[in-house]
Structure formats: structure tokens, C-alpha cells
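Please fill in the sequence for the structure shown.

STRUCTURE ENCODING:
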């Protein structure tokens, strides 16, 4: 066989190897594309929800219920509330009706002796416990808001 020529068998093998590489590349692109879509969707949601987000936990007891609202450190600053010394808490039901409200010192300083993030406590009327869905600290920038979740032991 002359230099530079290939046998039919060698050509088939290189064609087969090229097909395998092509299939692997297409699979790689498909998986990469899927991961990129998931990252964009999840990343967009997390970014939108985490900016100014509150963690709001509902603690139930035989004597009533308390909401505990935790603020992320980067948002627990005077300028977030336009340097005011208090913020107004509003908690609403699914329809947007305010069920619980109160004025609280700002920035938050209660950390239970340094063992938790800065937070505030708000009593919830017994009749409204099951209906409270979302809480926010009014007139904050970014607006600090979050869904109410049942408290969990961490």
C-alpha cells in the first residue's frame, strides 16, 4: 500500500471512532444545555427570592404562636430602612389582608446571646395562626419579605 493511503478497514474504524466522538459530543452538549437551563432557572429564582429575603418561622405553643423573623446580615443595616430606628412588620394572608402588624427596632439586635442570626419576635393572634402566609418589613430597600414556614429544630 502506498504512503498516505488507508485501507478500507482503517477507514471504517476511523469513521466509527468519529461517530462515537460525535455522539459523545452531542450527549455532552445536551447534558450541558440541560444543566445550564436548570442553573438559570434556579439561579434566577434564588437571586430574586434571596435579595431582601426574610426567613419567617412560626413557633406554635399551647399558649399561642410567635413568628420569628430572621434578617440576613447584609440587609440588617440602618440604610436598608432609610436610617430609621424602627421598621413596620406586616404579615398577610393569601389575599393580601394584613393579619399581624407591629413596629420593631431597627436594625435588629436580638441574637439570643450570639447563637442565632439577628431576628425579631411577633405574637400571632390564635385566630390568625393558620392564615398568615407572608411577612414583610415595610419601607425597606430592598424590600425584606418572606413566606411563613413552620419552625424546625436546627
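FILLED IN BY: designer on duty
SEQUENCE:
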Amino acid at each position: 500500500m502506498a504512503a498516505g493511503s488507508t485501507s478500507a478497514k482503517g477507514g471504517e474504524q476511523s469513521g466509527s471512532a468519529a461517530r462515537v466522538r460525535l455522539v459523545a459530543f452531542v450527549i455532552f452538549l445536551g447534558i450541558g444545555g440541560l444543566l445550564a437551563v436548570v442553573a438559570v432557572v434556579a439561579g434566577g429564582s434564588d437571586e430574586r427570592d434571596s435579595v431582601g429575603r426574610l426567613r419567617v418561622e412560626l413557633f406554635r405553643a399551647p399558649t399561642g404562636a410567635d413568628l420569628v423573623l430572621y434578617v440576613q446580615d447584609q440587609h440588617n443595616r440602618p440604610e436598608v430602612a432609610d436610617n430609621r430606628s424602627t421598621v413596620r412588620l406586616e404579615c398577610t394572608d393569601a389575599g393580601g389582608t394584613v393579619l399581624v402588624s407591629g413596629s420593631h427596632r431597627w436594625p435588629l439586635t436580638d441574637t439570643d446571646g450570639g447563637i442565632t442570626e439577628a431576628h425579631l419576635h411577633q405574637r400571632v393572634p390564635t385566630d390568625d395562626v393558620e392564615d398568615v402566609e407572608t411577612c414583610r418589613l415595610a419601607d425597606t430597600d430592598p424590600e425584606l419579605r418572606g413566606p411563613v414556614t413552620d419552625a424546625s429544630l436546627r
